[in-house]
Amino acid sequence: MQVQKQKQKQLQLQTMILIKIFIFILFYWDLYECKNIVSITNHVDEHGVTHRQIVLSKLPIHTKVSHRDNIEHKRMQESFNNMAPLDTTLSISKRVDIFNSYLRNVKETFNLISEAQGRGRIMSEQGGYLVLTPLNEAIFELKLKPWEFPRDIHRMEGQDKDEIEVEEAINENIKDFINAHVVKLPSLKNLAWENANDNEAVVHLQSLSSADIRLKSDDEGLMVCGDGNTWIRVGHIEKCSNGVIMFINKSLVIP
């Protein structure tokens, strides 16, 4: 029994490390592959066991900049510039035309994912954005269109509500739908982790609509869970200059 528990803990730790590695690659790899200056330090844990840690070296601001530093900095900057921002990437992804059209109607959110043009934003206190984008067919499958829920538009129209009031309700419905699929990432170090069970590690995020978004990995890749307890497989992933897009085949919210 004790051996089984130890194996479960090891598997749990491995799963957590895999997810952290994925997030590291997703957000930081392009930065660190350009400038791999590191040092190794020893760290003794609470049990007296010594571990080696790799620490990124920080050069003081008065350090003389070499010609090689200038070349690497230029290459790193070019790497940033070659990435399209979130809004551009979404606009050329035909399989998410419907989501993108709704997104453009929510000007406040659209402006948020359009403003930042550099990857540095993800690493700074300002952070970047994660857009969990349902494919066109996922939105077609909904019993109600995104503008029809959660506020009952047809009932409001049947009650002869003021046209302006109905229009405002429609806009709020669209805003709720879009914001449920957008996550602000203030900094990766603030991600909250918990043990879902004996062999899983789940990362908790919060959407712009303040809904709980859970992300985990398995042997086949990433899965996300929003409204309810249904886990949705993440399909294609696009890295952008100001965040990441994850394409999913189900909506995170349902009517």
TrEMBL record:
Q: Where are the transmembrane segments?
A: 12-29
Keyword set for this entry?
Answer: Membrane, Signal, Transmembrane, Transmembrane helix
UniProt-listed InterPro entries: FAS1_dom_sf, Mug57-like
What PANTHER family does the annotation carry? FAS1 DOMAIN-CONTAINING PROTEIN YDR262W (PTHR28156:SF1)
**What's the protein called, per UniProt?**
FAS1 domain-containing protein
User: What organism does the UniProt record list as the source?
Assistant: Henningerozyma blattae (strain ATCC 34711 / CBS 6284 / DSM 70876 / NBRC 10599 / NRRL Y-10934 / UCD 77-7)
